[in-house]
Amino acid sequence: MVKRKGSNTEVDQPSTSKRARAQSGHHEEDPDVEEEEEEGDGAGEEDVMNLTQGDPNLNHPNEVKEADTGIIEAISLKNFMCHSRLEFKFGPNVNFVVGKNGSGKSAVLTGLVVGLGGKATITDRGKSIKSFIKHGQNAAEVAIRIRNRGLEAYKPDEYGEAVIVERRLAQDGATSYRLKSIKGKTISTKREELSHVLDHFNIQVDNPVSILNQDTSRNFLHSRNASDKYKFFLKATQLEQMSSDYSTIQEQREEIQATLRTKEETVPQLEKIVSEKEQRFKDLATLQELEKKVEGLKNMYAWAQVHELEKQLEPIAKAIKQEEARTPKYDQKVQESMKKVEAAEAKHQDIQQKLQELADKVQALNPKHEEAKANLKLKKDACKKTQAEHRKVLNQLKTTKRDREQVMERIDEMKDSVQQDYEAERRAREEQIRLLQEQLQKLQAQQTTTDHQIDQFAQAVTLYKEQLYNLKRDEQDIQNTTRQLQRRLQDLQSSRNNSLKRFGNFMPDLVRQINQAYQQGRFHQKPRGPLGSCISLRDPELALAVESCLKNLMFAFCANDHHDERVLEGIMKQVCPQGRRPSIIISRFHERPYDVSTNRVQHPDYPAVLDVLDIEDPVVSNFLIDQRKIECVLMIKDNKEARQVMQLQRPPRNCNEAFTAMGDQVYTNRYYSSNTDKSSYLRVSIEEEVQETQERLQRLQQDGSATRQQLAELEQDIRKNQQEQRRHQTQKMKTQESINKIQYEIRDLQSVEEPTPVDVSTLEEEVMMYDEQIKSLEEKMETIETDFNAQKEDLEEAESAYQQIDQQIRELADSADPLKDDLGRADIEISQAKQHRKHYEQKHKEHLKKIADMQKEHDKHAKKVEEETGKAFQICPERLKVRRTAKNIENEIVQIQKRIAQEEVKRGNREEVTKDYYESREQFGTIKDQIRELKRFIKSLDEIMFQRQQLYKDFRRMLALRSNHFFINMLHQRGFSGKMKFDHRVCTLSLEVQSSESNKQVTKDMRSLSGGERSFSTVCFILALWDSMESPFRCLDEFDVFMDMVNRRISMEMMMKVAQDHRHKQFIFLTPQDMSYLRDQSIMRMWRMPDPDRGTGVLPFERRVEEEDDDRRN
């Protein structure tokens, strides 16, 4: 065994993704999907070691160049079988995918077949495509990169050096393809393009030898049927396809032969018909003279029409000249009116200028006026201040004198009352204090009670105001609801004669204008709506349920595109009231109803919304399916049953919600009650709904009256409490005044001091002090009076200056009044002049418009004359002088045409007879040509098919000899002998194998051999078929599972030698065995899958280093 050197080994780690397995306590399986448990299923991660022996791009000197097209460069699996993500980059020649059973290596071959468009049954791994999606995932993806180089590349300008095929598998069984360039640009999404790619590269996905899985290999090992082996040989070499093509050609040849017989049978009858039509054609020659006369009359008729039109043009031109002659008069009137406007405006401007001059004078006086006014105010303030000071000093003087007198009186009293009884006065004062304190306590208690009552009244007012606010809000709600019901009642009463008025009184007019716009061609497709008018119920009890389901769609319109939406929106702006404009939803119209049989909800007891509606227009039904999925919503009348079906049981397939007869909405985990108890649009009985609406209006009116009465009572209560609150506050103020007064009296009594021995010296000193103050104040009074007299003189001078300037401003203002009157009259004159000018300009404009209209009529008539003249020249190039009228000529033409028609009734229409004759003659000649071509084609086809059948037999014999020769050579390498025995007559193929030289008995039944020998013989057989196969790659899955070590080694050396001799082909082998013993490893690339861990849900991946592999092999 040769040990690999570290420098010659390339270890690549493909990109992987690690995803946690989806955890779920409950999993529902679709009964239509068969699950297949893959080996190693349950692994949440994939990891692969790529062990490439030597340099894959290093070629031996004498080796054949590797393939440029068709080989698999890489494959990527995502959520496919047991792999979350798995990627391989294959080499151009030999590739080994090594892994133990359960590691998921077979998924590579399965992904290759499925990714290239193969069916699930070909893989023997599942019965449906969705069975390949990893458990717990919604979709799987397979991406395959195919080499596309060299001269035989497929569309190299579009794809580049590789074609990337991506196939996505969905859980619902849907599948999609994407063919991309090497840069990742999507070139096509069609299955046909993939077929073209596979045909171009000669890739045979369904060829069991090109991609041989382990089940096919196992069945082949155990098969005794020689017919099966022969079929295997035909399919591998594409002889079966060639035979099928020849059979198809033979069937088409029989169809052509039947067509030929049918055409030959019609020849005699067609020949007779052509002869009869030829005779009728010759009999019509006598009508040519009459037709020539008609042609001459038609020429005269054309020029007669031109002459009559030219006569009609003359009076129009004459009238235009007359009107143009009146134009200068209108121009003169306009000019005169414009001059009057200019004169009035000039007068107006002159008055304005005089007023402006007066205003400028007033503006010039304003600063002096303001200055004089400010000076006057300053002088007045100074006088007022001096007067205030004078009054203050005077008051002080009076107070001082009064105080002096009181002190003098006190001195006299003290001197006179020395002998009075002071003890009696003290006891009387204490008794008075006690009485006042009792009265004070009563007043304070009364004050506390009043405060409490004021708080109660304030709280009552606040409470009543809150109730008043709530009642006013209720009254507003009642008024809004009443207006809505009145409008609804009006719509219902109108809908007795027109059902569209149920959606609003404006709706019939809106629908009418939509129909008119459609007839005028303004819409690409006629909008539908309101959608509630386009549907009807099969069960009236479900009216509220359907309206709750469709909601605003009942009132909406649908448009085909944005152009139609803009047109419809413009019509709605003109017709619909503010705030009641229906919504517009854009959805492409489809005239054929959708087929929802596979995706709709099915329940034995309860219908879907689609089932309870009668919808004649498929556009409306398709729109509701797109917007609301009415095929997936159940109608369950009873609320309890709805909860039972949607929440307590497993909901029906394709159903997520249901509606009850009460309009309640039921989900699998939620329940929403309807906010209304009556339907608005789908009820059958209009009278019943009118009566209910009237009753609701009556109840609302009663509620409104009661609410207004409560409002009046509340407002009365608020006023009463506010009055009581103010009355108690007044009482509180009075009580507080009494309290203050009593407290003052108590303090005054308590402040009385006990009498002391009489000493009036202090009081006498106080009298002397008052005398000095009086003298000082009298002197100050004299000074203030002197200052006031001076200020009074200044004030009189300032007031005189102010009055003088103010008089000037008033005189200027008075002089402006007559000018303002003149300005008003000038405004009137301008307005009148402009009205006259407008009148004459309008007349002038109407005059010019009349001339333009007449000229337009003249041009129109002249154009008609020109057109008729052109038509006449086309009919008759030479102008004819015609004296007859066009009507007279037309009558003569009609008479002659009647005569021609009578002749044609007898002999047939000349044009039709002529056309019929030439068409039948041409048809007869075409059929004879077709018969001749078909005979020639059938003869040529028979000759070609005879040659092809002979070549097919020779080719089959050559392939059989070549395969047999290769099979014998392969057996000899093991020391075996045998042959492949073909019987093409009975379509059988048997393998005769002798296991060793010592045993001369030929073994015809391979099942009598050991497992390893049988597997080795099968490998030889497959290699022999490979030699005759043109596919760019070959794939084998666990080909050596039943071999012993010796047979396996020999088989692998044989296959490696074949691969080396066929460097332009690619080989992919899947095996659980160790392939490290192979010698020529420069042409191969090896991928090793990690061992499966069946004890856990996630495979524990770890990178294997190259040194460990080397040590293990040593």
From TrEMBL:
Annotated region (Disordered), positions in chain: 1-63
GO terms assigned for molecular function: ATP binding; ATP hydrolysis activity
InterPro entries named in the record: P-loop_NTPase, RecF/RecN/SMC_N
Pfam families attached to this UniProt entry: SMC_N
Biased composition (Acidic residues): 30-48
Places the protein is found: Chromosome; Nucleus
Protein's name according to its UniProt entry: Structural maintenance of chromosomes protein 6
One cellular-component annotation, GO: chromosome, telomeric region
Domain RecF/RecN/SMC N-terminal positions: 72-1076
Keywords, ordered alphabetically: ATP-binding, Chromosome, Coiled coil, DNA damage, DNA recombination, DNA repair, Nucleotide-binding, Nucleus
Membership in a protein family: Belongs to the SMC family. SMC6 subfamily.
Domain of life where this protein originates: Eukaryota
Location, primary (coarse class): nucleus
Positions with biased composition (Polar residues): 8-17, 50-60
GO terms classed as biological process: DNA recombination; double-strand break repair
